[in-house]
Design a protein that fits this description.
Elements (H helix, E strand, L loop, with lengths): L15 H12 L49 H13 L5 E5 L8 H10 L3 E6 L15 E4 L2 H8 L1 H4 L10
Parallel strand pairs: 1-2, 2-3
Length: 170
């Protein structure tokens, strides 16, 4: 989805020129331009129009959104209930993975301590080494610094196998 691509400069990524530049780089198998650090609040991100957002591939009408909870949103109540029930019913928990979040916002932040109380070790996968669970890191915990999209396939390779590089399909 070009409109949601990480920008390489502060120009509008939805323009035909920006789309063509990215397409040309991919076609020529050149190294793509360096992406901006979108976690830096000083980086100006372009405004997006609703027409540039991804739509349902079947009906072409409804907007798609990623399966994430944005800051300020609540987790769905049925998801919270399912997690609470599972945590309560589990006698022992081996591992809790904290992926791409600071784990400092409740109720999710409390899951780390609840899992630890049942024996869990903690694995944190995050870009920022300062983003660790509210209860901090303990002996035996792991911190993997970097992009979860790159680190998770490596961590899980023995379980899920090799994941093909989507760029190779272009």
């Amino acid at each position: 989805m070009p409109a949601l691509a990480i920008p390489v400069d502060e120009s509008d990524p939805t323009t035909n020129e920006a789309r063509q530049a990215l397409s040309d780089a991919l076609d020529k198998k050149k190294e793509a331009p360096r992406e901006l650090d979108i976690s830096d609040e000083k980086v100006q991100l372009p405004e997006l129009a609703i027409r540039d957002l991804p739509r349902c591939p079947r009906c072409k009408h409804g907007l798609l959104r990623p399966g994430v909870v944005w800051f300020g949103e609540f987790l769905p109540s049925d998801v919270l209930a399912e997690i609470e029930n599972w945590m309560r019913a589990s006698n022992k928990i081996d591992l809790i993975m904290v992926i791409g979040t600071s784990a400092k916002v409740y109720p999710a932040a409390g899951y780390v301590d609840s899992a630890r109380a049942k024996g869990a070790r903690v694995a944190v996968i995050n870009m920022d080494p300062g983003d660790t669970p509210a209860g901090g890191m303990r002996s035996g915990d792991w911190f993997f610094q970097g992009d979860a999209g790159e680190i998770m396939p490596e961590i899980l390779k023995s379980v899920i196998g090799e994941i093909p590089d989507p760029a190779e399909k272009l």
